[in-house]
User: What shape does this take?
Amino acid sequence: MFIKLSTLLTALAVASTAVAHGVISSPPRRRPGTNFSSVCGSQIYSIVSSDEYGNQQGEEQNINSGTTAACHLYLCKGLQFSDNTANVQHYPANTVVPITIDLRAPHTGVANVSVVATATNKVIAGPLISFNPAYSVSTPIPANQTSFSVTIPSLSGQCGTAGACVIQWWWDARSIDQTYMSCVDFTQ
Assistant: This one.
């Protein structure tokens, strides 16, 4: 059986877009870089840098000998602050932060936005907003699930140092066992 090259390339193009799901598109989110590659390995780096919209489970399936203990996939998908120092935002207490989500493929689940301390990967404020259900496949997605604002509370000095805290958008679709997240580095 022979498959035409053009048919195969079309199928691959469709498959590559089908695996893309969602990320924060504004404000600037953490992105993959050389430090991410160093701690998570070149295979995970290749997966994330070619499709930043993917899920943590896809990364987990590719853990190998190049993945170090410093690769925390469930903290900002393992993406490293050291690759993103130019993207740090400053949000004093009571700042209203508009957030835009670029959603490419919905999956019904739950979602929220919280402030997370990066040293412990613990929520220290929030959820600041939550959606349940989120990104439904059976109903139109409300506009306020992809374009919304959160108010940053006073964090009592916990986020005074760049890299100490992130605003984390977290979306979990249990029915398909997929979790997505994006992080915005900020100081207060």
In short: The chain has one domain: 25-187. Residues 63 and 177 are 17 Å apart (CA to CA).
